[in-house]
Specification:
This protein is of the alpha+beta class and about 240 residues long. About 30% of the residues lie in helices and about 10% in strands. The protein folds into three domains: about 1-30 and about 60-115, no CATH class; about 125-165, no CATH class; about 170-215, no CATH class. A four-stranded antiparallel sheet has the order 1-6-5-4. The chain has a two-stranded antiparallel sheet with strand order 2-3.
């Protein structure tokens, strides 16, 4: 992974016959020699932009900024294949040297994607200042369970140690992030509870294969089985 990441940030080919060479680029625009824009700096290949400011009442601007910094690394709509089978990626903003497209060999493109995979158990988003996890003022600016516990302390209500350390469950996180409520039955709307966490890949594959086969065999709307009409009572 270290070699793949090193090749990725230096625009080098990581694998294949062209290993070590510069990635092929298309420069279709003239180079720009003007100074780096105000509010931003660039040192040793790294750039930091600090020119965007959002006031407390500019909620839409703040949301747009949050969406920008949390966007995926690759936009599929700008991906395409060349006539010889290479992967062509169109840049959203041209580089200062006029580069508008980057061309990858398919195997090297997979290596570039692998370099983007985050390491396990590593936080990709870090908070500082009053948003830091151990800040004494965090409960005043962040709504949630910890804020509710802080309000309990302010009113004199005692919170247990388990309540202080409790965080959202995976079911609650799925509902909050992806709007998937696994605690509600999608058929009847009743309450559901988690009975097991399956992590064995072989067992997961068997379950998913069974569900795929069952979905392909059964129609979208299941009809009741056929039966004879009810017997009519005969009277003299």
């Amino acid at each position: 992974m270290a070699q793949l990441q090193g090749a990725s940030i230096t625009y080098r080919v990581a694998v294949g016959r062209q290993r070590g060479r510069k990635v092929f680029t298309l420069q279709t625009l003239p180079a720009i020699d003007d100074a780096f824009e105000a509010g931003a700096g660039k040192v040793a290949g790294f750039s930091l932009h600090a020119g965007v400011v959002a006031r407390a009442d500019e909620r839409q601007k703040l949301e747009r900024l949050c969406r920008y910094i949390s966007r995926p690394a690759v936009a599929e709509k700008r991906l395409s294949l060349t006539s010889n089978g290479n992967v062509r990626y169109e840049l959203k903003t041209p580089y200062r040297d006029g580069t508008t497209h980057v061309i990858f060999d398919p195997l090297d493109f997979i290596a570039k994607l692998a370099a983007l995979v985050p390491p396990p158990r590593a936080n990709l988003t870090r908070f500082h200042g009053v948003f830091a996890p151990n800040s004494r003022y965090r409960d005043r600016v962040v709504p949630g369970r910890r804020a509710q516990l802080g309000a309990q302390e302010a009113t004199g209500d005692e919170a247990t140690l388990a309540e202080r350390r409790a965080s959202m469950t995976w079911a609650q996180r799925l509902k909050r992030v992806f709007s998937i409520d696994v605690e509600v039955c999608p058929v009847c709307g009743g309450a559901m509870r988690i009975i097991a966490c399956i992590e064995d890949p072989d067992v997961i594959e068997k379950i998913m294969s069974h569900l795929d086969a069952k979905a392909s065999e059964s129609p979208g709307t299941r009809l009741p089985p056929c039966r004879a009409p009810p017997q009519r009572a005969l009277f003299d």
